[in-house]
Protein backbone atom coordinates (compact mmCIF):
# COMPACT_ATOMS: atom_id res chain seq x y z
CA UNK A 1 0.00 0.00 0.00
CA UNK A 2 0.98 3.64 -0.51
CA UNK A 3 1.83 5.82 2.46
CA UNK A 4 1.02 9.52 2.87
CA UNK A 5 4.23 10.68 1.16
CA UNK A 6 3.53 8.53 -1.90
CA UNK A 7 -0.03 9.89 -2.13
CA UNK A 8 1.25 13.47 -1.97
CA UNK A 9 3.70 12.81 -4.82
CA UNK A 10 0.94 11.36 -6.98
CA UNK A 11 -1.35 14.28 -6.19
CA UNK A 12 1.31 16.68 -7.44
CA UNK A 13 1.01 15.02 -10.85
CA UNK A 14 -2.75 15.73 -10.72
CA UNK A 15 -2.28 19.39 -9.92
CA UNK A 16 -3.15 18.99 -6.25
CA UNK A 17 -6.32 16.94 -6.79
CA UNK A 18 -7.27 14.46 -4.06
CA UNK A 19 -6.28 11.16 -5.66
CA UNK A 20 -8.40 8.91 -3.46
CA UNK A 21 -11.42 11.17 -3.80
CA UNK A 22 -11.19 11.06 -7.58
CA UNK A 23 -10.79 7.28 -7.70
CA UNK A 24 -13.72 6.81 -5.33
CA UNK A 25 -15.95 8.45 -7.94
CA UNK A 26 -15.55 5.39 -10.14
CA UNK A 27 -18.30 2.78 -10.40
CA UNK A 28 -18.92 -0.33 -12.47
CA UNK A 29 -21.26 1.66 -14.69
CA UNK A 30 -18.47 4.16 -15.34
CA UNK A 31 -16.19 1.41 -16.57
CA UNK A 32 -18.86 0.01 -18.90
CA UNK A 33 -20.59 3.09 -20.28
CA UNK A 34 -18.57 6.11 -19.26
CA UNK A 35 -16.40 6.29 -22.37
CA UNK A 36 -19.36 5.72 -24.70
CA UNK A 37 -21.30 8.48 -22.95
CA UNK A 38 -18.47 10.95 -23.43
CA UNK A 39 -18.29 10.09 -27.11
CA UNK A 40 -22.01 10.24 -27.94
CA UNK A 41 -23.78 12.49 -25.46
CA UNK A 42 -23.22 16.07 -26.64
CA UNK A 43 -25.44 17.43 -23.86
CA UNK A 44 -22.86 16.81 -21.14
CA UNK A 45 -21.91 19.94 -19.29
CA UNK A 46 -18.34 21.21 -19.23
CA UNK A 47 -18.21 20.44 -15.51
CA UNK A 48 -19.12 16.76 -16.05
CA UNK A 49 -16.59 16.48 -18.86
CA UNK A 50 -13.88 18.04 -16.70
CA UNK A 51 -14.71 15.67 -13.84
CA UNK A 52 -14.50 12.64 -16.14
CA UNK A 53 -11.15 13.86 -17.45
CA UNK A 54 -9.82 14.26 -13.90
CA UNK A 55 -10.88 10.73 -13.00
CA UNK A 56 -9.17 9.41 -16.13
CA UNK A 57 -5.98 11.23 -15.17
CA UNK A 58 -6.18 9.72 -11.68
CA UNK A 59 -6.46 6.23 -13.15
CA UNK A 60 -3.47 6.81 -15.40
CA UNK A 61 -1.41 8.09 -12.46
CA UNK A 62 -2.20 5.03 -10.36
CA UNK A 63 -1.54 2.53 -13.16
CA UNK A 64 1.62 4.27 -14.32
CA UNK A 65 4.95 2.45 -14.03
CA UNK A 66 6.14 5.48 -12.06
CA UNK A 67 3.73 4.61 -9.26
CA UNK A 68 5.94 3.55 -6.31
CA UNK A 69 3.53 0.73 -5.42
CA UNK A 70 4.92 -1.25 -8.39
CA UNK A 71 8.55 -1.02 -7.24
CA UNK A 72 9.64 -4.39 -5.88
CA UNK A 73 12.39 -2.91 -3.72
CA UNK A 74 10.00 -0.48 -2.03
CA UNK A 75 8.77 -1.03 1.52
CA UNK A 76 4.99 -0.69 1.60
CA UNK A 77 3.16 1.13 4.38
CA UNK A 78 1.88 -2.19 5.76
CA UNK A 79 5.34 -3.78 5.83
CA UNK A 80 6.64 -0.66 7.57
CA UNK A 81 3.96 -1.01 10.23
CA UNK A 82 4.73 -4.71 10.65
CA UNK A 83 8.45 -4.10 11.12
CA UNK A 84 7.79 -1.27 13.57
CA UNK A 85 5.56 -3.60 15.59
CA UNK A 86 8.20 -6.34 15.61
CA UNK A 87 10.96 -3.94 16.61
CA UNK A 88 8.97 -2.35 19.41
CA UNK A 89 7.32 -5.42 20.92
CA UNK A 90 9.57 -8.37 20.07
CA UNK A 91 13.07 -7.72 18.74
CA UNK A 92 13.91 -5.06 21.32
CA UNK A 93 12.94 -7.36 24.21
CA UNK A 94 15.07 -10.42 25.09
CA UNK A 95 13.19 -13.71 25.16
CA UNK A 96 10.23 -12.48 23.10
CA UNK A 97 9.34 -14.34 19.90
CA UNK A 98 6.70 -13.83 17.23
CA UNK A 99 4.73 -15.65 14.57
CA UNK A 100 3.92 -13.60 11.47
CA UNK A 101 0.89 -14.97 9.60
CA UNK A 102 -0.30 -14.26 6.06
CA UNK A 103 -2.41 -16.13 3.54
CA UNK A 104 0.05 -15.00 0.85
CA UNK A 105 3.55 -16.52 0.77
CA UNK A 106 4.68 -13.58 -1.36
CA UNK A 107 3.88 -11.23 1.55
CA UNK A 108 5.84 -13.46 3.91
CA UNK A 109 8.78 -13.20 1.51
CA UNK A 110 8.69 -9.41 1.83
CA UNK A 111 8.84 -9.66 5.62
CA UNK A 112 11.64 -12.22 5.35
CA UNK A 113 13.65 -9.79 3.23
CA UNK A 114 13.36 -7.11 5.90
CA UNK A 115 14.33 -9.53 8.67
CA UNK A 116 17.40 -10.69 6.77
CA UNK A 117 18.47 -7.08 6.26
CA UNK A 118 18.34 -6.69 10.06
CA UNK A 119 20.17 -10.01 10.65
CA UNK A 120 17.17 -11.41 12.51
CA UNK A 121 17.08 -15.20 12.42
CA UNK A 122 13.75 -16.56 11.21
CA UNK A 123 12.13 -19.67 9.79
CA UNK A 124 9.29 -20.09 7.30
CA UNK A 125 6.53 -22.69 7.55
CA UNK A 126 4.24 -22.93 4.53
CA UNK A 127 2.70 -25.52 2.27
CA UNK A 128 5.97 -25.66 0.36
CA UNK A 129 7.71 -27.22 3.38
CA UNK A 130 7.38 -31.01 3.43
CA UNK A 131 6.00 -32.67 6.56
CA UNK A 132 9.32 -34.31 7.60
CA UNK A 133 11.06 -30.90 7.52
CA UNK A 134 8.53 -29.12 9.73
CA UNK A 135 9.41 -30.43 13.24
CA UNK A 136 12.92 -28.88 13.22
CA UNK A 137 11.43 -25.49 12.32
CA UNK A 138 8.87 -25.75 15.12
CA UNK A 139 11.52 -26.86 17.62
CA UNK A 140 13.74 -23.92 16.63
CA UNK A 141 10.96 -21.49 17.51
CA UNK A 142 9.90 -23.22 20.72
CA UNK A 143 13.44 -23.67 22.07
CA UNK A 144 14.22 -20.75 24.44
CA UNK A 145 17.93 -21.19 23.71
CA UNK A 146 17.46 -20.93 19.94
CA UNK A 147 18.39 -17.70 18.18
CA UNK A 148 15.29 -17.90 15.98
CA UNK A 149 13.07 -14.94 16.92
CA UNK A 150 10.39 -15.02 14.23
CA UNK A 151 8.42 -17.67 12.36
CA UNK A 152 6.75 -16.74 9.08
CA UNK A 153 3.61 -18.89 8.90
CA UNK A 154 1.26 -19.45 5.98
CA UNK A 155 -2.33 -19.16 7.22
CA UNK A 156 -3.43 -22.48 5.70
CA UNK A 157 -0.38 -24.25 7.17
CA UNK A 158 -1.27 -23.16 10.70
CA UNK A 159 -3.92 -25.81 11.24
CA UNK A 160 -5.08 -27.69 14.30
CA UNK A 161 -2.37 -29.55 16.21
CA UNK A 162 0.49 -27.14 15.56
CA UNK A 163 2.11 -26.05 18.82
CA UNK A 164 4.00 -22.76 18.62
CA UNK A 165 3.83 -21.76 22.28
CA UNK A 166 7.50 -20.74 22.14
CA UNK A 167 6.20 -17.46 20.69
CA UNK A 168 3.80 -15.15 22.49
CA UNK A 169 3.24 -12.53 19.78
CA UNK A 170 1.18 -13.23 16.65
CA UNK A 171 0.81 -10.78 13.76
CA UNK A 172 -2.06 -11.27 11.29
CA UNK A 173 -1.04 -9.36 8.18
CA UNK A 174 -4.24 -9.70 6.14
CA UNK A 175 -7.85 -10.72 6.86
CA UNK A 176 -9.29 -13.93 5.43
CA UNK A 177 -12.97 -14.24 4.57
CA UNK A 178 -13.20 -17.32 6.82
CA UNK A 179 -12.54 -16.10 10.39
CA UNK A 180 -12.10 -19.65 11.65
CA UNK A 181 -8.70 -19.87 9.96
CA UNK A 182 -7.52 -16.80 11.85
CA UNK A 183 -8.82 -18.22 15.12
CA UNK A 184 -6.90 -21.43 14.47
CA UNK A 185 -3.73 -19.42 13.83
CA UNK A 186 -4.19 -17.57 17.13
CA UNK A 187 -4.63 -20.87 18.95
CA UNK A 188 -1.16 -21.96 17.81
CA UNK A 189 0.46 -19.74 20.47
CA UNK A 190 -2.39 -19.60 23.00
CA UNK A 191 -2.43 -23.18 24.24
CA UNK A 192 -1.19 -25.50 26.99
CA UNK A 193 2.47 -24.82 27.65
CA UNK A 194 2.31 -21.07 27.10
CA UNK A 195 3.83 -19.29 30.11
CA UNK A 196 3.73 -15.69 28.88
CA UNK A 197 1.05 -13.15 28.09
CA UNK A 198 -0.15 -13.56 24.50
CA UNK A 199 -0.43 -10.57 22.17
CA UNK A 200 -2.37 -10.58 18.88
CA UNK A 201 -1.90 -7.82 16.28
CA UNK A 202 -4.11 -7.31 13.23
CA UNK A 203 -3.08 -5.23 10.24
CA UNK A 204 -5.64 -3.83 7.81
CA UNK A 205 -5.41 -1.18 5.10
CA UNK A 206 -8.26 1.33 5.21
CA UNK A 207 -10.35 2.08 2.13
CA UNK A 208 -9.44 -1.28 0.57
CA UNK A 209 -11.14 -4.64 0.07
CA UNK A 210 -9.66 -5.68 3.42
CA UNK A 211 -12.31 -3.61 5.20
CA UNK A 212 -15.03 -5.42 3.26
CA UNK A 213 -13.49 -8.76 4.20
CA UNK A 214 -13.52 -7.72 7.85
CA UNK A 215 -17.25 -6.92 7.64
CA UNK A 216 -17.81 -10.32 6.05
CA UNK A 217 -15.95 -11.95 8.94
CA UNK A 218 -18.15 -10.19 11.47
CA UNK A 219 -21.30 -11.28 9.63
CA UNK A 220 -20.19 -14.92 9.57
CA UNK A 221 -19.26 -14.90 13.26
CA UNK A 222 -22.65 -13.42 14.10
CA UNK A 223 -24.36 -16.09 12.00
CA UNK A 224 -22.48 -18.83 13.83
CA UNK A 225 -23.44 -17.37 17.20
CA UNK A 226 -27.12 -16.66 16.53
CA UNK A 227 -28.17 -19.45 14.17
CA UNK A 228 -25.99 -22.41 15.04
CA UNK A 229 -26.34 -22.01 18.82
CA UNK A 230 -22.64 -21.82 19.48
CA UNK A 231 -21.45 -24.28 16.83
CA UNK A 232 -18.92 -22.97 14.33
CA UNK A 233 -20.15 -22.15 10.83
CA UNK A 234 -18.11 -24.38 8.53
CA UNK A 235 -18.81 -22.81 5.13
CA UNK A 236 -16.07 -23.58 2.62
CA UNK A 237 -17.16 -21.32 -0.25
CA UNK A 238 -18.09 -17.69 -0.76
CA UNK A 239 -21.73 -17.08 -1.65
CA UNK A 240 -22.92 -14.64 -4.31
CA UNK A 241 -24.02 -12.24 -1.56
CA UNK A 242 -20.54 -12.49 -0.02
CA UNK A 243 -18.91 -11.52 -3.32
CA UNK A 244 -21.31 -8.60 -3.81
CA UNK A 245 -20.48 -7.36 -0.32
CA UNK A 246 -16.73 -7.59 -0.95
CA UNK A 247 -16.91 -5.47 -4.09
CA UNK A 248 -19.53 -3.00 -2.84
CA UNK A 249 -22.23 -4.34 -5.19
CA UNK A 250 -24.90 -5.09 -2.58
CA UNK A 251 -28.01 -3.00 -3.48
CA UNK A 252 -29.61 -3.57 -0.06
CA UNK A 253 -26.60 -2.14 1.74
CA UNK A 254 -26.59 0.96 -0.49
CA UNK A 255 -30.31 1.49 0.24
CA UNK A 256 -29.59 1.33 3.97
CA UNK A 257 -26.73 3.82 3.58
CA UNK A 258 -28.96 6.25 1.67
CA UNK A 259 -31.63 5.98 4.35
UniProtKB/TrEMBL annotation:
Q: Matching InterPro entries, A to Z?
A: Helicase_C-like (IPR001650), P-loop_NTPase (IPR027417), SNF2/RAD54-like_C (IPR049730), SNF2_RAD54_helicase_TF (IPR050628)
Picking any one GO molecular function of the record gives: hydrolase activity
Which UniProt keywords are listed? ATP-binding, Hydrolase, Nucleotide-binding
Q: Which domain of life is it from?
A: Eukaryota
In this protein, which residues make up the domain named Helicase C-terminal?
78-244
Note down the stretches annotated as region Disordered.
Answer: 30-55
* Classification via SUPFAM superfamilies: P-loop containing nucleoside triphosphate hydrolases
Q: Where is the composition biased (Basic and acidic residues)?
A: 30-40
Note whether Hydrolase occurs among the keywords. Answer: yes
BP GO terms, sorted: DNA repair
Name the PROSITE patterns for this protein: HELICASE_CTER (PS51194)
Q: Name one GO cellular component term.
A: nucleus
Gene3D superfamilies membership: P-loop containing nucleotide triphosphate hydrolases
Q: What's the protein name? A: Helicase C-terminal domain-containing protein
